[in-house]
Amino acid sequence: MKNIFYFLSTLFLLTGCMSGKLDKFDKEMSSGDYEAAKAVAQKEGKDLLWTLQAAAASTAAGQHQESNTLFDNAEDMFIAARRKSNAADRMGTLAKILVNDNAVAYKGEMYDGILINTYKALNFMFLKEWDLARVELNRAYDRQRRATDFYAEEIKEQEEAASKKGFRIDVSKVMAKPEIQRLSGLEAYADYVNPLVNLMEVIYLKHKGDVSDAERLRQTQNRLLAMTKSKHLQKELNPQDPWTWVVVENGQMPRRVEWRLDFPIGIFSGLIREMDNLSIVSIAIPKLQTIPAAYNQFVVNGENVDMIADMDKIIEAEYSRALPGILTKALVSMAIKTIAQYQIGRAKGHTTAFFVGLLQAASTQADVRTWSAIPKNYHLAIVQSGTISLTSRGGTLGSTETKGNSLVFFKVSRGGHVTSQTLVLD
């Protein structure tokens, strides 16, 4: 009994630990102290999540070579996490089942993988390693193509694993609940496309492509225009004049917060049939919490910018696609813990079963880990080179000078801190 109390207290102390670590990192990013943010990430560890955080902070600080070294390491971990195919991994590992998702390594989201290659391409562009930038853009496109089947396969694996454990799950009945439906069915851009990838390729092909790339440029620009309706992309750019592509990376993506559901097993009547004689179950799943931005509209040299990629919508749509798998995973874990509680009650008595129930409630925690350095959205303006001024609500946020064809990358943090980096494209 003493051991149970000790384990319970340990679990309660750990509750919110990951959220607190992310808060500390986010605070430094919001203030614009990207060196400090990188230091926080590197202190936390070298796993996939914190490597991604450190890499993003390095990009924001203009440390493109170091950023790509970190992104290389992150990509290796991202790929390795998806190559595992043993039964234990498909089930989520024993630790995940008996404790919670946070007990195992962060595997990343599909949009994480796409952005890894996109930011590597951006870094290589600033390093003027154009061939390598093109390789990374091709990889980003390939990730988008392969993302479509990922969640369907994940749900199938979870259902097969549950079947091997002796029970069945019909997650469609849970998805039909009104409170769940409000979190599902969201869409952003078709087929997991992130328009930022298309934009980076358009910029690359316009300035570093050759004659053989003309058709690809036309198709990519048309796809981008269809998704964004950008007025700037519809401009007729006189090739005799120097132009500056202004990209604004703004705010912070939604954070994951825990949504805890404790209710009678009767809600799942006929769902997990072997558990109809039990009374109380607990599940915890993550849901998204939108983070307000300091600025929502921007003007460059008197022209309104166009939103190119809404990461809030992309992340919400991917969460919607992942939700059946998240619920299936939570139900598998809940079922195993609850069946264990029932069996212990029969063998050891109700008092022991009661404390095991407390242990189940304490260990039922949602995985709220996320690559929180991702911005809220990206914006675009194309203006003639010279003095480039970014304003919002009538006030100047930043300005820089460009000569020749250029790319200016403004980063506007959640707290409104503004930095800029300039790349000459000629």
Automatic annotation (TrEMBL):
Superkingdom of this protein's organism: Bacteria
Name under which the protein is recorded: Lipoprotein
